[in-house]
Amino acid sequence: MQTHQTEQQDRSSELQAALLLSEEESSNLIRPQKPLNPLTASRSHQELHKELRMTHKRRVSQEGKSELQRALEKRKWEQRMKESRDQEEARRSRSPLHQELVKRQQRLEKLEKDEGQQREGPEFLRVKERLRRTAVLNAGEKRV
Q1: Distance between CA atoms of residues 49 and 37, nearest Å
Q2: How far is CA 144 from the centre of its chain?
Q3: What is the pLDDT of residues 26-70, one digit of tens each?
Q4: In terms of Cα–Cα distance, which of 34, 36, 35, 17 is closest to 25?
Q5: Are 45 and 39 in contact (CB under 8 A)?
Q6: 41 and 47 in contact (C-beta within 8 Å)?
Q7: Are 138 and 130 in contact (CB under 8 A)?
Q8: CA distance 23 to 29
Q9: CB of 92 closer than 8 Å to CB of 98
Q10: Rounded to an integer, what distance in angstroms lies between the CA atom of residue 103 and that of residue 92?
Q11: What is the pLDDT of residues 7-19, one digit of tens each?
Q12: Closest residue by Cα to residue 134 from 142, 96, 1, 81
């Protein structure tokens, strides 16, 4: 058992020694570096990119809506405007016969409304008429 443990310790010490050697060798080597992009490294590009980020952040925070939501709302608004223009144009382009029919319908509706208000009149008049009807019906039943 002790031999097994000593073998493991020897192996681990050998591995550590190998790692130390490889680290020393690698420190002597020149490590490759990623070449700089002259466009992104330029000061003007960095300032422009910073400004774009700030304006985008400001718009999103102010409106709280994505570009897609704004486009959909704009499309809905344009559809509503088109519908209202179409309705207005249809109203203008009606024939004289159609206009007269619409006027007649409005006049009839107004007359029906006025008659409905007159029929509703005071409640005591309606009750009195009901009593008369029932009195006439009761008298007719007694004669028979």
Answers
A1: 15
A2: 75
A3: 667 777 888 888 877 788 888 989 998 988 887 766 667 777 888
A4: 17
A5: yes
A6: no
A7: no
A8: 10
A9: no
A10: 15
A11: 666 777 776 666 5
A12: 142
Q: Number of helices (H) and strands (E), helices first, in the chain?
A: 6, 0
CA dihedral 118, 122, 124, 129 (to 10 degrees): 0
Q: Which two tokens stand for residue 125?
A: 């008049």
- DSSP-based helix, strand, coil % in the chain, nearest 5: 85, 0, 15
The residue type found at 81 is M
Write down the residue that tokens 């179409």 correspond to. Answer: 86
113: helix, strand or coil? helix
Q: How far apart are alpha carbons 99 and 106 in whole angstroms?
A: 11
Which of 134, 136, 138, 114 lies closest to 126 in space, CA to CA?
134
Q: How far is CA 62 from CA 17, 58, 66, 142, in A?
A: 60, 6, 11, 85
Amino acid identity of residue 20, one-letter, is L
Give the integer Cα–Cα distance in Å for 101 and 99. 5
